[in-house]
Amino acid sequence: MKLPRLIIAGTHSGVGKTTLTLGIILALRKKGVNVRAFKTGPDYIDPTYHAEASGKPCGNLDTRLVSEDSILELFKRRAEGADISIIEGVMGLYDGLKDGDEGSTAHLAKILDCPVVLIQDARSMSRSAGAVALGYKDFDKKIDIAGIILNNIGSANHYKYVKSAIESNAGIPVLGYLPKDSN
Length: 183
Fold this sequence. Notes:
seven-stranded parallel beta sheet, 7 strands, alpha/beta
């Protein structure tokens, strides 16, 4: 499939997936990129934000309710003509139905053969962030974690330590961060 695409996933719910996804979509749109937005799973709130940011209706890709073949068809039909499709995941990357893969963001990434940017909360950790990233990388070798964006970074030094821990231990590039901000 030659449709440019990227999944924004998180280590868990509340990690900042929606904020970062909206920021990426809006930044690309402001640069004149034709972005198509998608949301994983049954969600009716985030897609309204995605539509506002992208200027186009947001597609829904729910692997629990729709077959893999239908997911591919829906994605291809809606992504056609876009410069890139940005897909926001649901919950944590590997959280699916009960203790399985079905319905998870990872399941969708495998169906679409799509790289993943993982959002990781770095609050109150430094070197341990490398262990967390390594766990996500090694948990399912079929998932291509192309990069990590950190959230809740306390300072430039904090970012330097966390970035080093992840890149040297997990071998995943850290693409940037959002500073800690209670608002």
